Amino acid sequence: MARFLLQRLVSSIVSIIGATLIIFILVQLHNDPRELYVPDSGYGLTQEQWENLGEKMGFNDPLPVQYWNWISGAFIGDFGVSLAQQVPVREIIQRRMWATIELAIGGWVLAIMIGIPIGVLAAVKRGTVWDYIGRALAIVGQGAPPFVIGLLLIVIFAVVLQDTWFELPAAGRPPVFSIKTYILPCVALGWPAAAGLMRLTRSAMLEVLDSEFVKLARAKGVGWNTVIYKHALKNALIIPLTSALLLFSGWLNGALVIEIIFGWPGIGYDALFTAVNDNDFPLLQGTVFFFVVIFVIFALLADLLYTIIDPRVRLTGGEK
Amino acid sequence: MQSWWFLRRYPVIPIFILILLLIAAAIGPYVTPYERDIGNIADRHLEPFTTSEHSVSGKGWITNSDGTMSPTQIVNGYHVLGTDHVGRDIFTRLLHGSRISLMVVAISISTGMAFGLAFAMISGYYGGLVDEVLMRIVDIWNALPFLMVALILTLIFGRGLEIMVVVLFLVAWVNFVRIIRAQILVLKEMDYIASARICGASDFRIITKHLFPGILNSAIVIATLNTSGLILAESTLSFVGAGIQPPTPAWGVMVNEGRDYLSTAWWQSMVPSAAIFLVVISLNFLGDWLRDRLDPRLRQVD
User: Fold this and answer.
1) Which of A116-130, B266-280, B287-301 has the highest mean pLDDT?
2) Which of A182, A216, A250, B152 is the most exposed place for a label (fewest CB within 10 A)?
3) Which three-class secondary structure string do you get for B183-211?
4) Is the residue at B27 inside a domain?
5) Residues B78, B137: one domain?
6) Cβ contact, residue pair A15, B143, below 8 Å
7) A189 touches chain B (CB under 8 A)
8) pLDDT tens track for B175-195
9) Residues of chain B numbered 190-229 and touching chain A (CB < 8 Å)
10) What pLDDT does residue A249 have?
11) Does B12 reside within a domain?
């Protein structure tokens, strides 16, 4: 176990370093990295100021030293100063993080509450109306990108059903907490994830129901419901639950789009999106680093959870 | 009953939709009378199925009554899917958009497939240290959130079609590696590979002549299933503003332009949304069917 843990830990660190190295190399590909780090590509600066800037920002150092300066700063939370807002990047991330986390948790709970039960039902009552409901939900969830689902929900619940009892607000996160504002963004974020979870649960459940020990339990005379909910479910939920952990990190992509649509003041909208529009490179770089680290941590957690629940993985060294 | 059976067994409807898409991309832009990027502002937000008396058509230079020349002319126009916020015909833009989507996705999936297959075959065939290094690269690649890498690339290299193709290529290739490598690991231990080696076949010949045909089916299935993902990625990037730039009518761009008018002119963003949805689910269905046909090993219990 210790060896396996160490192995996963090392490979996570390698992933973080590799990913940041790629970003760092990409920056070097720009004809003059200084242009990325000053507002308006340095328009209005004299030649002398321009030269000094290179010295000050460390662009005259050898490349490995530059990389070391950046990565060692990033690991202690020093991502530099945002160009457009003149505020440390860390502050922006800290300020905007909670809105995104709220959204992610809402969508996550929704995805699990919808995806897993319907997946189980679809497998147990295969070929019945539950199966078809599940399939329809999955088809829409996997076929429509989050922004299409989000806009469709807005059209239905904020435009067509306007001034009825079903009307739901479609813009922003109000200063006063109101559960209604969370419904549309969380559904738009959770639906595609629920679709994936449902397919996974369904196929895992079918596989387990087809296995020897379930047949044995049935042959022994154990009731159908007991077999399903006591024997089969425990084994079938291993894969969906571990992949549900990965969802969290995978959403950092989707959350950006959802935040743009619903004007949600989270990291995606207020850090990434504005960074791209303002050509604010330090902000973008810092946010991406933050996301990569979160992603790797969650992947590690999912792996660990997987080995704890299912010891077979540990014995084979984690090769899937 | 016979036709119902046929519909359930073969992906008729998805193939029909995809063929329609191909035709639209091939000849669509030539058959509509309207200009892609020019509209009459007086015609803004016409509902679907309306006729306007002052639509702008772009068929060559014409002489006006006062002797000046203009590139467009005012005609009576029928707008099947309505017009957008500057009076451009949505159907026309949709047709042009299908061409752009197809082109971008076709280039990136084919280059991605070629690179991914080569990567996987080298990694699986040579094994050892080569395999170790190449698979670590894949691990690192999977840790990169693609939307953010795309954003970084657009900040560094500027926005546009070429960057978009590169980004999608970077997304596409990695999806081939794991599955194909696993299959190569099995294939290379087989007797016919050993006999080929005894006969003196070079590594290159073994890989291209003997291993490649064995993985081709899987590769086609993965490519089909990934194409829908690439279309989603392309439209998402364009929607966010990091992909294809307006006024070029990529579907994602059209959805984004209509976002501000949802309460008054829902069709402006819902029509391209529906197009994205239809194409993606058609590709998913076709991919699932191909998988069952060509490569049931990739299938989970269903």
Assistant:
1) B266-280
2) A216
3) HHHHHCCCHHHHHHHHCCCCHHHHHHHHH
4) no
5) no
6) yes
7) no
8) 899 888 988 888 888 899 889
9) 228
10) 62
11) no
**How many domains is chain B built from?**
2
CA nearest A146 in B: which residue?
Answer: B236
Helix axes A89-124, A129-143, angle to 10 degrees: 150
Enter the tokens of residue B33. 């009378």
Q: For B228-258, write each residue's pLDDT tens digit.
A: 888 988 888 888 888 888 888 888 899 988 8
Report how far residue B185's alpha carbon sits from residue B128's, in angstroms, rounded to the nearest whole number: 12
Flag whether B137 is in a domain: yes
> Is the Cβ of B145 closer than 8 Å to some Cβ of chain A?
yes
Mean pLDDT of chain A: 79
The span from the CA of A81 to the CA of A122, in Å, is 51
The pLDDT value given to residue B50 = 80
Both tokens of A215, joined, read 């047949």
Does residue A149 contact residue A164 with C-beta atoms inside 8 Å?
no
Provide, as residue numbers in chain B, all residues whose Cβ is less than 8 Å from the Cβ of A16. Answer: 143
Residues 247-306 of A with CB under 8 A from B: 252-253, 256-257, 260-261, 272-273, 275-277, 279, 281, 284-285, 287-288, 291-292, 295-296, 299
The ipTM assigned to this model is 0.82
In a domain, B258, yes or no: yes
Contact B155 A159 (CB under 8 A): no
- Note whether B297 contacts A: Cβ–Cβ < 8 A: no
Q: CA-CA distances (angstroms) from residue B191 to A41, A94, B123, B195, B203?
A: 62, 59, 20, 6, 15
Task: List the domain range (segments joined by +) for residue B78.
Answer: 38-88
Last residue within a domain, chosen from B54, B88, B122: B88
Which chain A residues contact residue B179 at CB under 8 A?
none
Q: Examine the domain organization and report whether B48 and B147 are in the same domain.
A: no
Contact list, A296 vs chain B (CB under 8 Å): 143
Q: Mark whether B103 and B141 lie in a shared domain.
A: yes
Give the predicted TM-score (pTM) of the model: 0.84
The two structure tokens encoding residue A247: 């969802």
Tell whether A243 is within 8 A of chain B (Cβ).
no
Q: Are residues B200 and B164 in the same domain?
A: yes
| Residue-level pLDDT at A33 | 66
